[in-house]
């Protein structure tokens, strides 16, 4: 590598770092998470091994034998040499000897029975209940309700029971409480009715907002083009405000505008309409405001792009169309719009991609409501993975949602690149002369 | 169609660009608005086609007062300097555009486009896009588009400025041919005197928002109204020489010439003489002595700068094949009948 290449990479390094950290890494992690069952309950590191009654009950009938089930459930307590040795160690050898003489080799089904047996001690009483409970545990031969940190520890414990060896593997997998690799997320995603609902919502959201963005952006660009310059730039500045305003503040203003004691409700109140939250009153209302809130932001970008594209049309061409007899409308229809073809296509494709993945204005305004009426795909991913009302954050399922968007986004980008013939687009200005 | 501009005034903000200009273009005539940059010739043209509005005065096409009509309703054809073809339309659509916006039916449009394409010699280019055409071809398309709806007047704004020298020569005669064939009234805006003189019936020479002289090209050349007109027309340009009158001779810096009969008795004692290069040379005798300081070979003829003793330069144009060389001392004569005399403030005497 010569010095110039090194210098080039040096200058590129910050950009590369940002691309890797904030673009590539999230994509790779999304793919990775999407094929796990990670959630709040599994954690994101490895997990422990635990069997208890409820896990045992959740194991399918034919996965392990009934004998195994009974052995595990009825293992209970036994006064054996092992336990007695531990008792001699923790309490005293005398106590252990007395218990051996009283109940040596006896079996008890429950801890209470074991504790009762310990109460039988006369010469070496264990007085406190707590100590008695601790002593009872020494004779526990069941592995239920005990957490094992590693698979080896769990298998060793299993080996100490009478459970048939054939069921060890099955039990180990059921006892694992951490995350594991799975394709269940994708299957679940495609089986849920709500997924199709979110997909339909997303399509509606993108289509309506895009139409508003491009249509209104064009309208603003063309109408301000025909205004006197000072007036035009004033209007453009006003219409640019939604874009430069902090989103939280911008949406807060919309909320103030629409909530039940807000501007809209107050004004309509004078007309005798009962005050209501206009944004969240019905699904239709929510959609109208979602499109307006996003649309005003997007339209301002379109307005700027289209305005500069119109300005790039040579004045003599507009003069020519006027002396050729074209009215304003004909001038827009035949001269201006055809030459805005590329800016319009660019804005459309760019905004399709950004709208597909954007959910922040919906999150701030309706949060997907009322009900799930305005829940779009990206918002569903966010809710599932990071802000679940139930509290169990399903990272894996959320990532699966996101992965679908990543795939759609990449396919769409490739199509656009091909469709726009990107090389030609950057090499030659689209507006000639 | 006769075009009549009366007391036309145009202001941009505080600045008055054109003050009470009067111009009449006869029907079927081609007239040139000639002048240096900023003289108001383009402003006048854009006002006639309606792109600029008048601040005062009136404009008539024939008997119709179009002073307050927008350009859409004036029925003018304009050829712009950069042709202003619509890049996204085919040549056919470009030419058809003025008819299309008037909602003529498709068959009529096709017929008229074919006719006009025939007239400007581009019938084989109709399906192409403007970007695929050469400058001269684009010019023909622009002419066709301007002429297709038979406008009252054809306005040409520096139509040859963007062409290379050879094409310019070709299009000069082509535009004139098309204008004569259609018999349309035409106004040509140009800063090139040769274009104006070779293409137009009359020239309106403008300076500072005023028409200085309006005349036929040869008349204007031979008989300029003032020193500005004399200096503007002619290539190589006229030379101006300070002179004083002693008896019946003009005394120049280095020599003297006789006062011609038509000037005799009308001249002040101090004046400027305008000598065109073709009226200074050995064939007119001798008497004006100087040194050849510059020789330009043009093939058919040579151009000489002769510097007199007091530093004044007089240009001379001579048939080639003569033996004068740079640095030679010469004494040449001036054709006194064709000397133009101007007073100190530039007025023609």
TrEMBL record, chain B:
A UniProt-annotated Pfam family: ABC_tran
EC numbers, comma separated: 3.6.3.-
Keyword vocabulary terms for this entry: ATP-binding, Cell membrane, Hydrolase, Membrane, Nucleotide-binding, Transport
GO cellular component, one term: ATP-binding cassette (ABC) transporter complex, substrate-binding subunit-containing
ABC transporter domain ranges (all copies): 3-233
A molecular function GO annotation: ATP binding
Family: Belongs to the ABC transporter superfamily.
Annotated protein name in UniProt: Trehalose import ATP-binding protein SugC
């Amino acid at each position: 590598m010569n010095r110039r290449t090194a210098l080039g990479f040096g200058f590129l390094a910050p950009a590369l770092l940002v691309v890797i950290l904030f673009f590539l890494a999230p994509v790779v992690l999304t793919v990775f998470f999407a094929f796990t069952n990670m959630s709040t309950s599994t954690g994101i590191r490895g997990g422990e091994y635990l069997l208890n009654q409820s896990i045992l009950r959740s194991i399918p009938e034919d996965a392990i034998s009934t004998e195994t089930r009974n052995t595990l459930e009825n293992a209970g307590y036994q006064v054996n040499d092992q336990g007695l040795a531990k008792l001699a160690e923790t309490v005293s050898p005398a106590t252990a000897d007395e218990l051996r003489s009283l109940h040596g080799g006896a079996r008890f089904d429950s801890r209470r029975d074991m504790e009762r047996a310990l109460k039988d001690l006369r010469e070496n009483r264990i007085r406190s209940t707590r100590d008695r409970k601790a002593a009872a545990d020494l004779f526990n031969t069941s592995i239920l309700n005990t957490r094992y940190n590693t698979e080896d520890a769990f298998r060793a414990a299993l080996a100490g029971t009478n459970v048939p060896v054939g069921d060890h593997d099955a039990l180990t997998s059921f006892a694992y409480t951490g995350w594991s690799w799975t394709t269940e997320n994708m299957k679940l995603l495609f089986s849920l009715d709500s997924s199709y609902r979110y997909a339909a919502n997303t399509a509606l959201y993108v289509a309506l907002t895009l139409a508003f963005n491009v249509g209104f952006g064009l309208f603003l660009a063309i109408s301000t083009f025909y205004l006197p310059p000072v007036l035009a730039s004033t209007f453009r500045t006003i219409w640019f405000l939604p874009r430069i305003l902090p989103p939280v503040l911008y949406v807060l203003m919309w909320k103030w505008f629409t909530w039940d004691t807000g501007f809209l409700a107050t004004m309509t109140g004078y007309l005798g309409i009962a005050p209501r939250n206009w944004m969240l009153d019905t699904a239709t209302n929510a959609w109208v405001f979602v499109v307006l809130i996003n649309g005003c932001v997007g339209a301002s970008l379109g307005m700027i792009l289209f305005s500069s594209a119109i300005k790039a049309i040579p004045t003599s061409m507009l003069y020519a169309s006027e002396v050729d007899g074209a009215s304003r409308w004909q001038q827009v229809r035949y001269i201006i719009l055809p030459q805005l073809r590329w800016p319009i296509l660019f804005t459309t494709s760019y905004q399709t991609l950004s709208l597909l993945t954007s959910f922040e204005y919906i999150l701030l305004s309706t949060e997907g409501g009322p009900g799930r009426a305005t829940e779009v795909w990206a918002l569903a991913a966010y809710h599932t993975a990071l802000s679940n009302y139930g509290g169990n954050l399903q990272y894996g399922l959320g990532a699966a949602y996101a992965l679908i968007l990543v795939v759609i986004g990449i396919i769409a980008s490739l199509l656009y690149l091909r469709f726009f013939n990107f090389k030609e687009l950057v090499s030659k200005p689209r507006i000639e002369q | 169609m006769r075009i009549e501009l009366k007391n036309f005034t145009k202001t941009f903000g505080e600045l008055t660009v054109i003050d009470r200009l009067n111009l009449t273009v006869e029907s079927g005539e081609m007239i040139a608005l000639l002048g240096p940059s900023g003289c108001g010739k383009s402003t006048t043209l854009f006002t006639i086609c309606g792109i600029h509005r008048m601040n005062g005065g009136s404009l008539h096409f024939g008997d119709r007062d179009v002073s307050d009509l927008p350009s859409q309703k004036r029925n003018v054809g304009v050829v712009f300097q950069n042709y202003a073809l619509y890049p996204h339309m085919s040549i056919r659509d470009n030419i058809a555009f003025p008819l299309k916006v008037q909602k003529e039916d498709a068959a009529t449009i096709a017929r008229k486009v074919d006719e006009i394409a025939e007239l400007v010699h581009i019938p084989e280019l109709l399906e192409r896009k403007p970007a695929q055409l050469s400058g001269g071809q684009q010019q023909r398309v622009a002419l066709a588009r301007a002429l297709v709806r038979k406008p009252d007047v054809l306005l040409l704004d520096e139509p040859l400025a963007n062409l290379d020298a050879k094409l310019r020569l070709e299009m000069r005669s082509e535009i004139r041919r098309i204008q004569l064939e259609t018999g349309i009234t035409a106004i040509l805006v140009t800063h090139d005197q040769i274009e104006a003189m070779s293409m137009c019936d009359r020239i309106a020479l403008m300076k500072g928002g005023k028409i200085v002289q309006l005349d036929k090209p040869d008349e204007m050349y031979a008989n300029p109204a003032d020193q500005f007109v004399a200096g503007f027309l002619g290539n190589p340009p006229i030379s101006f020489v300070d002179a004083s009158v002693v008896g019946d001779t003009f005394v120049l810096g280095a020599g003297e010439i006789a006062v011609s009969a038509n000037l005799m008795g009308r001249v002040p004692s101090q004046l400027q003489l305008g000598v065109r290069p073709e009226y200074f040379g050995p064939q007119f005798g001798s008497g004006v002595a100087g040194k050849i300081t510059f020789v330009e070979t043009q093939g058919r003829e040579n151009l000489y700068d002769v510097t007199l003793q007091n530093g004044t330069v007089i240009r001379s144009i001579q048939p080639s094949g003569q033996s004068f060389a740079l640095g030679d001392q010469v004494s040449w004569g001036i054709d006194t009948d064709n000397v133009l005399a101007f007073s100190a403030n530039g007025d023609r005497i």
